[in-house]
Amino acid sequence: MRQAEVLYKKEKAGMLTQLDDASFVFTYQDSWFNDINKPAISLTLPKTQQEYTSKYLFSFFYNMLPEGSNKQTVCFQNRIDTKDHFGILLTTAKQDTIGAVTIKKLDK
Known about the structure:
Blueprint: E1 2-8, E2 11-18, E3 24-28, H1 30-34, E4 51-54, H2 59-62, H3 68-78, H4 85-92, E5 101-105
Antiparallel strand pairs: 1-2, 1-5, 2-3, 3-4
């Protein structure tokens, strides 16, 4: 199992978890979910429910990944399998993303 904090404008909004069966869970932080002034991190992950599950990396997070030669370079330099989408996300979405969301890997 691997986990990461999902930060919205550097504030913890939720947790993204890859389970041992390779499925994914995104859970809004209680304080974020209950605060009506806090936005959903994505239109595809609205604050209508607190926990989402998927067999695949959620499209919102998948769309944060590099593509083409940038992806190949990131994978080569960091020794990440090109099919390890969660690993690529943990490596590339730490800072300086296009939107307000960044990803912070949780160390065990």
